[in-house]
Structure formats: C-alpha cells, structure tokens
Amino acid sequence: MKLLDRERLNKWIAQMKAPYRLIVRNDETLEERASFRLTMMNVYVLLSTVIVLVATLVILLIAYTPVKRYLPGYQGGGNNGREVIALAREVESLEKELRAQQKYTDNVRRMLVGDVQTEKDVQPLNKETKEQDAAKQPKKVDLSEVDRQLRQETELDQLAAVVRQGRSTNFGSTDVPIEQLFFVPPVRGEISAPYQREKSHYGMDILAPKNTAIKATMDGYVFLSDWTLETGNTIGIQHDHNIVSFYKHNSLLLKKAGSFVRAGEAIAIIGNTGTLSSGPHLHFELWKKGKPVDPADYVAF
C-alpha cells in the first residue's frame, strides 16, 4: 500500500515537472511570434503569487482607505463612533443657539411693532377661550393696522439683513451685565418725560436745540432706519451683549440699515416727526434681552 502511494506521488511530481512549450503563432500566416517553456509547477507558483498579491492589496485598501465605508454591513470603528458623537453634540448645541436666536428675534419683532407684553396684560385665559372669543368677534382692519403690518414686514426684512451680516462675528450674542457697560449719552439736554413702563412709555424724552446731532450710545449695527407713522424717522441699533437702542422722532436719518456705527458717532438729527411727537425732542429707548429698561439708570445725561 505504501509502495503504491509512493509511486503515485512520484508520478504526480513528474507530471508537475514535465516541460511544456507555449507557442504564440499568427493565426493567418502561422508565423511563430513567441515561445515559452513552462511546467505545471511554474504555472501553479505564478498563479498563487498573483492571487496572494491581489488579496493583500485588497485587504490593505479596505483597512486603510475610506473604501470600507461603502461595504455592506460596515458599522465603523472607534474613531468613526467618536466623530458621530461629536457631530451629535454640535447639532444639539446649534439647535439650542437657534432656539435662543429665534426667541430673541421674536422679542425684537415685538419691539418694532409696539407689541410689548407687560404683567398686567397677561390674563388667565386658556387657549380654547381665546379661540372662541376671536371667532365670535369680527376682524377689524383700519389704516393704523395696515400701516403697522407694512412697517413690520419692512423692519423684519432689515433685521434679517443685519442678522446675516453680523452672524460671522456673533455680534450681540455675548452676555455681560448691563451695569458693567458704558453708554454714551445720545444727546445732552433736559429730560421732558422719564421712563414709565406702567404707562407704556418705554423710553425717555430729551429736549435739545434744533439741528442737534443724535449719537449712537454704543458700537453696533443699524437694523432699522426708516419712517413710521407714530415715531417718524426712527433708527434702531443692535449692540453687543444683547442690547438694542432706539432713537425716534428725528428730522433726518444719517445712517442706513446694515451700517456699522461706533459709540458717539452721529446717526440722526433731532426733530419732531411722527404722530406721537408734540415738539422737537429725542425719544430714546434701551432694551436688554428683549425687555425695556430705564435709560436713566445706565446713561449719564
């Protein structure tokens, strides 16, 4: 039995070492183009080497290049998992920032259209009661409401332009206590009407000579520079630290929406424009985080 196996092995080895000749001929002229002397052993070794090299190349390509991400069922390694976690945290942070920005924009919008909610305005009414009352009462539209809607659309467009312009520097997003800030008085003169929130007078009126220049109280971007029916020529400036200032009843506006102004820079000329004005003066307002504050507490007039 062992002798038979040895004979078979020797026969197989002889076949593997038996020489063969591979001849390449021209099919039409039968001219010999090339000739190769081969054995089965040479062919097996060559094919095995090629297969091993190709397999090694494929493994390296998958292991060290992004190609592996396109393989079905690939779950990702440790680094990829950390990237996903980091991206999720960044998305969550951006969502919080977006909600805060949206809330702040809504507050500014209410300021622009005069829709300021005070404590005494809040009534303990539920949503269903409000909807029923609104359905029973016919909607009244007058010129003042149309004017307010037109002002709102124009001013929101201007505000959006300024937000896009100032987003790269995060202007207005930082928060510092207002007591630590320095304000330049927009004009020096006699205070004819103080801040009275209970009477919906969210600023102070200051008297000054004709043609007096109105100055910006802090550095900031002008987001409103337009005429309104009630406040006449009005300028609104978005400052850093969530501060907004308004300058109303001017005779002339010197800055356009989107302009960057420095503290103390002239932005308007005092005047007597708007239906709420009874004489030449400046109506000056300060807002912090969407809520009005008394300018006299922070500005030395």
Total number of helices: 5
Which structural class should the secondary elements be placed in? Answer: alpha+beta
Order of helices and strands: HEEHHHHEEEEEEEEEEE
Mean pLDDT, nearest integer? 80
Helix content: 25-40%
| Largest sheet properties | 8 strands, antiparallel
Tally the beta strands: 13
Superfamily (CATH H level) name of the domain at 169-297: Glucose Permease (Domain IIA)
Distance between the termini: 120 Å
Q: If you consult CATH, what is the topology of the domain at 169-297? A: Glucose Permease (Domain IIA)
Provide the gyration radius in Å.
40 Å
Q: Stretches where pLDDT falls below 50 for ≥5 residues? A: 117-130, 136-143, 166-170
Strand content: 15-25%
CATH architecture annotation name of the domain at 169-297: Distorted Sandwich
- Overall, the morphology is rod-shaped
Reading off the top of the CATH hierarchy, the class of the domain at 169-297 is best stated as Mainly Beta
Description:
Strand 1 and strand 2 form a beta hairpin. The protein is rod-shaped, with a radius of gyration of 40 Å. The longest helix is centred in the N-terminal third of the chain and has 36 residues, at 78-113. With 301 residues, the chain is of the alpha+beta class. The N and C termini lie far apart (120 Å). Among the domains are: 2-70, no CATH class; 169-297, Distorted Sandwich (Glucose Permease (Domain IIA)), CATH 2.70.70. Strands 3, 4, 6, 7, 8, 10, 12 and 13 form an 8-stranded antiparallel sheet that branches. A 3-stranded antiparallel sheet has the order 5-11-9, with no helix packed on it. Strands 1-2 form a two-stranded antiparallel ribbon. It has helices spanning 2-17, 40-64, 78-113, 127-136, 143-166; strands at residues 19-25, 32-39, 190-193, 204-207, 213-215, 220-228, 232-239, 243-250, 252-253, 260-261, 266-269, 282-288, 291-293.
